[in-house]
Design a protein that fits this description.
Layout (H helix, E strand, L loop, with lengths): L1 E5 L4 H12 L3 E6 L2 H13 L2 E5 L5 H8 L4 E4 L8 H16 L6 E5 L25 H11 L4 E5 L4 E2 L10 E5 L15 H11 L5 E2 H9 L11 E7 L8
Parallel strand pairs: 1-2, 1-4, 2-3, 4-5, 5-6, 6-10, 7-9
Antiparallel strand pairs: 8-10
Length: 243
């Protein structure tokens, strides 16, 4: 497939490029600083990536990068950028909608605080104690829910450079809900107590960048099971039981 990566020099984006190359995809990197990308990839991998230098806030440049691509992976920016983060995502999504030759399969990075908490009508980002900048992910999700694109939102916990679990431990993938079991009695907790409970469990959501990237690259088909879904990830260990 032909895949364009926005934010290709970041921790997630550079891994998307490298894994995509190994899988035989035609990878395009949209970056502000091509030299940084070449340094990260190395000479061999750089030969297999088309590089477009541009500004993610410039509609024409983004539209050019999307032309004739099969998928776009948005790994650009971070919630701490505030409105700028939302404007970046909005501009790229708007161009995905308007470029006729783009097929519409889109992955956007979010966070575990966007996932539904079982037995409640809550998500973590709206609970007391969660950093308010995380709600910028909420705004990006709302933008996606307004589009007719074939999108998915990856919602991992803390991403790590390497696996904290052995390779034999499988990855649990959930749609819409947190990928850790919680007791049904959580519905009786106050929002403050729910937040405290989640904070005590969030270490169970640590996943390696490479596993996050592999999940996205393995689900690029149109009209697939992840269309219009938030995706959670966790390692399925023997301790992954309700406490």
């Amino acid at each position: 497939m032909k895949i364009v990566v926005f934010g290709a020099t970041g921790n997630t984006g550079k891994r998307v490029l490298l894994q995509g190359i190994k899988m035989g995809h035609e990878m395009t990197a949209f970056v502000r600083n091509p030299e940084k990308l070449y340094e990260q990839l190395g000479e061999h991998s750089a030969k297999h990536v088309k590089v477009i230098a541009g500004d993610m806030m410039e509609p024409a440049s983004v539209g050019e990068a999307l032309a004739h691509q099969d998928a776009a992976i948005l790994a650009a920016g971070h919630a701490g950028q505030g409105d700028e983060f939302n404007r970046i995502v909005d501009n790229i999504i708007s161009q995905c909608e308007s470029v006729p030759s783009f097929s519409g399969r889109v992955w956007v990075m979010g966070g575990a605080g966007l996932l539904d908490i079982p037995y409640t009508d809550l998500i973590g980002n709206n609970l007391p104690g969660f950093p308010p900048e995380y709600r910028n992910h909420n705004r990006n999700l709302e933008r996606l829910q307004q589009t007719g694109l074939d999108w998915s939102m990856m919602c991992p916990g803390t991403m790590t450079v390497s696996r904290e679990q052995p390779d034999s431990v499988p990855l649990l993938v959930t749609t819409e809900t947190l990928p850790v079991p919680v007791p049904e009695t959580i519905k009786e907790y106050s929002e403050t107590d729910i937040a405290g409970y989640l904070f005590s469990r969030f270490h169970e959501l640590n996943v390696a960048y490479d596993d996050v990237v592999a999940c996205m690259l393995e689900h690029l088909e149109l009209e697939g099971p992840f269309k219009g879904k938030r995706i959670g990830l966790a390692y399925q260990t023997q301790h992954s039981t309700v406490r």
